[in-house]
Amino acid sequence: MGNHITASVEFYFRGNKISSSLELELDQYLRSSGKLPDLYPLLAREINLSPYSYEYEIMQAETIMVSQASGLVADYVTDGFLDIDAFEAAWSENSVLEKLQEIAKQNLSIDDLQQHGELKKALVQAYQLGKASAN
After folding, report:
1. Are 43 and 19 in contact (CB under 8 A)?
2. How is the chain split into domains, by residue range?
3. DSSP classification of residue 64
4. What's the per-residue H, E or C state across 13-57?
5. Which residues, given as ranges, of the chain have pLDDT below 70?
6. Entry pTM
7. Cα-based distances in Å from 45 to 59, 106, 130
8. Structure confidence at residue 1 (pLDDT)
9. How far is it, in rounded angstroms, from Cα 133 to Cα 135?
10. What's the pLDDT tens digit per position in 86-107?
11. Do residues 114 and 120 make contact, with C-beta atoms less than 8 angstroms apart?
């Protein structure tokens, strides 16, 4: 299941209400860079707002609200606020576990690694060791 959100921001400039909303599929960003993009430039682009304008500065003073969250990201949205750091960490961990599950299935015919706690722990430790030695 993918991770989707609708990000929105609303602000007033010279007495006019300006709002922008954008639907995002988050997995593509996390797969390519491991991080979510800065949402303000994306929202500004949706309404043809220059990043060098006063309107953009006013927009950045407002909080981006998140709605219609689906997938793992839904667990990290509370009252319209997304805990980006916690979601990125959870997504990364979940991504590793999916890869380890595939390894366990291919090599050991284990369909659910969660049922083999010790093996899961050993695979995660081996992954972390390999990651640490690569740095």
Report:
1. no
2. 4-82, 93-134
3. P
4. ECCEEEEEEEEEECHHHHHHHCCCCCHHHHHHHHCCCCCCCHHHH
5. 1
6. 0.82
7. 12, 44, 40
8. 62
9. 5
10. 999 999 999 888 888 888 889 8
11. yes
